[in-house]
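Obj: model holo form, ligand = adenosine-5'-diphosphate.
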Amino acid sequence: MAKIIVVTSGKGGVGKTTTSAAFATGLALRGHQTVVIDFDVGLRNLDLVMGCERRVVYDFVNVINGEGNLNQALIKDKRVESLFILPASQTRDKEALSMKGVARVLEALKKRFEYIICDSPAGIEHGAIMAMYFSDEALIVTNPEVSSVRDSDRIIGMLSSKTRRAVQNMSPVKEHLLITRYIPKRVNSGEMLSVDDVKEILAIPLLGVIPESQSVLQASNAGVPVTLDKNSDAGQSYLDVVARFLGEEPPSREKKGFFTRLFGN
Ligand SMILES: Nc1ncnc2c1ncn2[C@@H]1O[C@H](COP(=O)(O)OP(=O)(O)O)[C@@H](O)[C@H]1O
Ligand SMILES: [Mg+2]
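Output (holo structure tokens):
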């Protein structure tokens, strides 16, 4: 059964697009047929992070409006087999993603892919609701600071009230906490919330912690998902997140350093 996973947060700039690209790439690296969809209508960020911006001809909104078909709009990744991108539209019409249209596209994708990753726009309005509405699971991307945690809390409330699963009284969207841009030094000095603080406030299961890393900006400037950079600590952490998502034990590298305190042995 295909799984729809939304990457959401409420707040902007916390790492949703970075996570969507890295997570989708990680799943595809493990051999899973994966597509990542940019729901951020008007901004088009994911195609840059994935390095396929020059190949965009048709986009998500074109497919919804019947101006192009799904095969025309899907971009196959150059590097990773079984990874595809459905880019966002540049249109300024934020309502371009109709509920019916999104449902139709997702149904078609479900026939072809195992994992459908939905990169949500910031905020709690139409675009963010469309990105989460049909989800089975959610990665809630949170930075260890009060404003981000507060917005994540709001998003958790919406996941349990504004999604198809909630509306149709199905089992709830499965939630995963992903703490990103984590700087252990700033936690120790009290400038940042600790992993335990964030876990306690949000009270959802922790899937992983991604450190703040220079390599993320470098990767995104180069149009390479950070999970493809073998020398990147953030990239390696994202691979661990994928492994854990797939039900595997945390790899041994997490037993060292600050991860010991997060996950124990
Ligand atoms: N782990 C990280 N370390 C350093 N910079 C990061 C990290 N994650 C994201 N960033 C940077 O933060 C900015 C916002 O990230 P992005 O993924 O676009 O967030 P969002 O999609 O939530 O708006 C980008 O400049 C990105 O490179
Ligand atoms: Mg984004």
